[in-house]
Amino acid sequence: MQLSLMEVVMGRSARRVAAVGLVAALALAGCSGQSLENGGDDASGDGQVSLKINFWGDMGLDKLKAKYEAEHTNVKIVLNSGEYNAQHEDLQKKLVAGSGAPDISAVDEGFIVQFRSQADQFVNLLDKGASSYESKYLGWKWQASQSADGKQIGLGTDVGGLAMCYRTDLFKAAGLPTDRESVSKLWPTWDAFIETGKKYTKATGKKFVDSGTNLFNPVLAQQPVGFYDPQEALQMEGGPKVAFDVSMKAIEAGISANLASFQPNWDQGFKKDQFAALACPAWMLGHIQDTAPDQKGKWDIANIPGGGGNWGGSWWTIPKQGKNVDEAYKFVEWLIQPEQQIEVFKTVGNLPSQPALYKDPAVLDYKKEFFTDAPTGQIFAATAENLKPQYLGKKNGPTRVAVENVITRVQQGGLAPAAAWAEAVKEADKASKA
Predict the structure, then answer these.
(1) CA 339 to CA 334: how far, in whole Å?
(2) Which Gene3D superfamilies does the protein's record reference (predicted)?
(3) Do 323 and 50 form a contact (C-beta atoms < 8 A)?
C-alpha cells in the first residue's frame, strides 16, 4: 500500500514505534478501524497452522486467503486489518515486549527504515532463499528493506506511483473538461492545480480537494529530500517546507474540504460528493471503489501536478518471535508470485514492485472499469519505472504524523496558517528526538 499519489506512496502509498506517541489517526494507506488482536496461534498437534497477518486497508488478501487455504488445507490465514499508524505502533511495542507480534506484518515505506534498523527482531529472509528474488525487484525497493549489515527483513508488495483521481461528473457540472488528457493539462504545477480548484469552488460552491494533508504528502514525495537526509538529520526547510506551503495555500484558498484522511468523515466525503479530486497513489484506487461503490464510472485518473513521485508501498515482514516462521515464509513467497501480484493489482489497484510485470499484458493492457476504463497499468507502470525515491529516515513515520497533526489543527480552525509552520517545525523536532 501509502503514501509519493502514496506515500499516497505511496505513496503514495504515505503514511505508519516504541514511544513515538502517535497522536492522530491520519493514515496514508487506508484503515479499517478494527481492533488489534493477540499474536497468531501455535501449530496444533494435528498439524494445523494458524498464520496471523497484520496490515491496513485493503491489500487484496480476502480472495487470496481463500485460494491459499484451499491449496494448503493445513493452514488457516487470520487477516487483521487495522489503522495504519496503530499497526506500526503495535508492531514496535510487540518487538520491544518480545512477544505478541503477528506471524506476518506489513510495513509501509514510511516505517521501513525504522524497522530495518532492528533487523535482529525479524527473520532474515535471505536465510530462507529470498536472494533469488533480488533481481526481480526494482533495485531501490529491494534495498529499502535491507539492513546496514545485509539482512533482508522484507519482500516488497507494491509501490505507490502518483496520479490524480477526479470525478468526471462533478467536473462537468463545474464547466471543466472531463477527459483525462485535457484535465492533465489544467495543472502542470501545484499552483495551477489550486487555481483550478478555485474555479471549481466558485462555479459549484463546493470544495475541490479532500484534505490539506493529502496535498502535503504527494508534494513532499516529489522533492529531492524529504524529512531526513541519509545522515538522519531533520531537513524541514527543504522538501517539507515546499509541501507544507502548498497545503496551506489550498486551505487558505478555501478549496479543501478539510477532512481528516482515512477517518469516517473522510469516507463520508466520498459518498456525499464533498470533493472532486484527490491525489492517487495506485493503492488509493482500492479505497475509492470500496468506499463509494455506487460511483463506478464517475471517476477517472489524470497526471499529478509536478510530475511523478512515490507515496506509499509496503513490504511483508516476518517477526522472529513467531511460532510458524517456515509456514509464514511459504505464504509470503506465494504472495509475491506474479499470479498473486497481478490478482491484487486487478482487485484493488496496488501496483507490483517487480518491473517485469509492467510488461505483462495482464498489467499493461488492463483497464479499470470503475475509473472510466482508465489504463491503470500504463499510468502507474510509467510512474514506477521513473521513480527516484527519497531517503526515509528512522523517524520518518512519527515525524510525518506530527506535521500532519499541525495541518489538521489548521483545517479545524485551531491554529492560524501564519503560525502553522513554526508549530510544524517544533512538533517535527520533538518527533525526531522521541
Answers:
(1) 9
(2) Periplasmic binding protein-like II
(3) no
Round to whole Å and give the CA distance between 140 and 389.
7
* pLDDT, tens digit (0-9, with 9 covering 90-100), for 171-217: 999 999 999 999 999 999 999 999 999 999 999 999 999 999 999 99
Return phi, psi of residue 171, to 5°.
Answer: -65, -45
CA–CA gap between residue 420 and residue 248 (Å, rounded) = 9
Q: Distance (Å, rounded) from C-alpha 237 to C-alpha 229?
A: 12
Domain extent, residue 344, equals 49-159+313-365
CA 11 vs. chain centroid, Å, equals 5
Specify the pTM.
0.81
> pLDDT tens for residues 331-366?
999 999 999 999 999 999 999 999 999 999 999 999
35 belongs to a structural domain? no
In-domain check, residue 326: yes
- Same-domain pairing of 375 and 356: no
**Strands across the sheet containing 104-108:** 75-82, 49-56, 104-108, 314-317, 154-156
Does residue 174 form part of some domain?
yes
Give dist(CA 298, CA 305) in Å, integer.
Answer: 21
| Half-sphere exposure of residue 268: CA atoms within 13 angstroms, side-chain side | 7
The answer as to whether 43 is a domain residue is: no
Q: Which triple of cell numbers denotes residue 49?
A: 497452522
How far is the CA of 190 from the CAs of 1, 148, 208, 294, 406, in angstroms? Answer: 24, 37, 13, 30, 21
C-alpha cell at 46: 494435528
Pairing relationship of beta strands 49-56 and 75-82 according to DSSP bridges: parallel
Contact present, 32 and 57 (Cβ < 8 Å): yes
Question: How far is 302 from 376, CA to CA, in rounded Å?
Answer: 10
